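Operator note (shift B, R.M.): manual run for Dipeptide-binding protein DppE requested after the automated queue skipped it. Running by hand, logging everything below so the morning shift can see what happened. Input copied straight from the record, untouched. If output looks odd, do not overwrite the archive copy; leave it for review.
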Amino acid sequence: MNLKRVSVVLTVLGAIFILAGCGKSSQTDSLGNSKYAKTQTLNWTENTALATADISKATDTLSFDVLMNTQEGLYRLDKNGTPKGALATNTIITDNGRHCTFNLRKGVKWTNGDPVTAKDFVYSWQRTVAPKTASQDAFYFFQVKNAEDINSGKKPVSSLGIKADGNYKLEVTLTKPVTYFKKLLAWPLFFPMNQKVVNKLGNKYGTASKYTVSDGPFKLTKWSGTSKSWTLTKNDSYWDKKAVHLNKINELVSEDTTTSYNLFTAKKTDATLLSGQQVKNNQHNPNFVKRLPTATTRLDLNQNKVKAFKNFNIRRAFSLAINRSQLTKDVLQDGSVPLKGFVPSKMGSNPKTGEAFDKEAYVKGAVTYDLSRAKKLLQKGYKQTGVNQLHVTLLTSDTDSSKDAAEFIQADLQKLPGVKIQVQSIPFVQLISKQADKDYQITVQTWQSVFADPINFLDVFEKGSSYNTSGYDSSKYDQLLDQSENKFGNQPVKRWNNLVEAEKTLMNDQGTIPLYQVAKSQLLRTNVKNVVYNPAGVPYDWKTTYIAK
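Run finished. Output pasted below as returned.
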């Protein structure tokens, strides 16, 4: 599923901080001494700019991370990734999991003083699935009654399977049982929106901090829409403000890890991403933290732009020409690991045997480095397509790691006869826009899951998916996914087997070229306490973060 889209390097560095208590006893020791620093300000660095603060328009991890910290939904995930009630005080599930009734917390307000009600959820969901909104993530709502037909223009938005029963009761009707539905509800895409504010601002909504309204722990400030810095300020109207300890989170964009590292060393920031040699140099630094999120970096060949990429042998040749081990070990040097397929590790295990998905679905021939075979396959592909050379542009982000990876891929692919690669590095916000518009020949993309289930990756390449921008089309693949979700929803073993077969189909078709699972090594000051990291969704929730003395 798609957290969903990310640049070659994940767009956010941070942590979810969980504090056991929020009353007076949690803030003092047995002698009555406070454990909190006088100044509760967290200074953070990002490696890409913020794209949007509009729930319906967000597609990247950084945007969702800001939304996670400035908005509130029915649930929030705890330190174990388990959904816990936020605005939902009580949930009743009936009709074999197809009907959900949520009783909402009363007295919750938006930062403009308006009450947060069930109608705000109805409006938000309807807005996201409406065709005119053109949300790339609308397909996540397709398990809600009529959502898919609404998104395709076949039914009115008013027919969506969500309704408000008064101000504080919300009813949702699903088309099928969805075992991970509560986890989806803890993702900002399913959070409420203030209809009055959105309608008043129109296209300006979410394009700058002054064009937003919040109901979460913090509110977005000092963001112009293009600025490379912004601040999350404590929301004094938040219903659970006693649990929030930070007054401010200052976020600064630094595409260059050398710059962010120097800022950290000078004690001007509390966290920095590490790359390459920095990781090796800081292995024993007490501030060092290594993370391996469920994010994959892949190379997509746009069959709609380059007809030769419709040929399987050419796609497979490109995959076999890339030495992933050398890329991760000698170039990235940050702990990233070569992928066995599109779906990374930590995305679930066989419910019967316990075998990890990435191991069970492994298609070795799709990701193994074999330059000799790659050259033979390319020549075969040339003959089949009637071309004898391929000169294409590789589109990537302008971050350090992205450019380093792109240059390595360029060098490896140019070992193939007749292949010439030009690298074009552009700012991240521009990159995701071009990728969404299918305006590329080949590009490096990173996908971050929203929840730990293989379907959250596999549905990217389903026909009709807004993220399937490279032109992959397989009726077998689509049928396997359709059966897994709509036929075997309550039969976990059969569903699992279908998902494994779908991954193998994608790899046997070389529908995409998996590269590596992205490691996010960083330095995080030791006085930033109780860090909890969610590797399979929006990674960082600062609701209860605090700075220790």
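Quick read of the result: The first strand starts at residue 5 and ends at 6. The chain is about 30% helix and 20% strand.
Leaving this for review. - R.M.
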